[in-house]
Amino acid sequence: MSSSTIAVHRTIPPFRALRRDATLASETVALVPTMGALHAGHISLIHQAAQTNHNIVVSIFVNPAQFAPTEDLDSYPRTFTSDLAKLQNLNVQLESEGALGRVKAVFAPTVEVLYPNGIPLDTKQQKGAFVTVQPLASKLEGGPRPHFFRGVATVVLKLFNIVQPDVACFGQKDVQQCVILKRMVEDLHVPVHLVIGGTIREEDGLAMSSRNVYLGQKRRAAAPGFYKALKQAEAVWLEALKSGRQTVSRSEVLERFYEGMKGLGEKEGVQFVVEYVSIADFKELEELEYVDTRKGGILSAAVRVLPVEEDQSPVRLIDNIILKGPETQW
Ligand SMILES: Nc1ncnc2c1ncn2[C@@H]1O[C@H](COP(=O)(O)OP(=O)(O)OP(=O)(O)O)[C@@H](O)[C@H]1O
Ligand SMILES: CC(C)(CO)[C@@H](O)C(=O)[O-]
Ligand code: BAL
Questions:
Q1: Fold for the domain defined by 7-197
Q2: Which of 67, 186, 256, 260 has a Cα-to-Cα distance from 118 of 20 to 30 A?
Q3: Distance 65 CA to ligand 3 centre (A)
């Protein structure tokens, strides 16, 4: 088998064998969970994992449990063949760089394998075991998507139980997901070390996301303004740090964010609706009236980009910036 060959498995037993073989060889296993439609953000997580781990498992599974019946489960981009080609190219690159690890296997299970007792989208009809992380799952993204983090935590714990990785990698772009999964691992004593990779962006600053393909030309052109508004808000924080202040008020930072959002999209005829903007602590996601410049906080937001053409639906964009202070541990 050449070092760039990647096994694709749809069932669980090959991962038991992979884990056993890795342990016998004193090698580590890292898992990078994805929903496919791989982009440079995913690839950077896998690349990072391969620097310090021997065997990388990438899961590709569009998880029904994290979609409400009204959401885009059916239309979610599925690009398995090109995903696999990207992983194979990455292995060639990892080999030429002399990295420690390679992508050894892709786990692309069927819904039946992950949910042997079924998974209706309506949560009231769901039976069996699920993971809830309260009240974190009800905050921020949990407002418009109350089902979401229960679905995410449940599938991630299933993946952990199947792959039994030493390490699992997640992207900061989904910052609340990171906070919730860290909490799940801590509270349930899950023996997996979580690594959070930085957000990879398009050249114009838009955070890469599989759903960006829904935007179309006009909305795509206006979308980077959202990150610019967050950067403007961050500038207030950085100025305060520089001038040695002890706290920064929420209102100062948010005012600058809203200034940045004002008029965004006018040129392209695109409307942005801010769903939430938050400055919260790292563990409980409690909103902070004043941010301690030593401790920092998470500045995060979601916007709804309204349709500009007949066949379009609203697209939600999420993004965040860590307001870092000297004692920030993130
Ligand atoms: N731009 C990015 N930079 C770094 N990591 C990312 C980025 N986008 C997604 N990830 C991470 O990749 C993993 C898999 O994410 P997922 O497959 O849902 O992709 P996505 O682009 O976030 O899709 P969606 O558009 O559905 O939000 C998650 O840990 C996610 O945080
Ligand atoms: C972690 C995850 C793969 C679980 O389905 C998903 O929420 C994602 O892609 O961020
Ligand atoms: N990356 C988050 C997956 C979702 O929105 O369903």
A1: Rossmann fold (3.40.50)
A2: 186
A3: 11
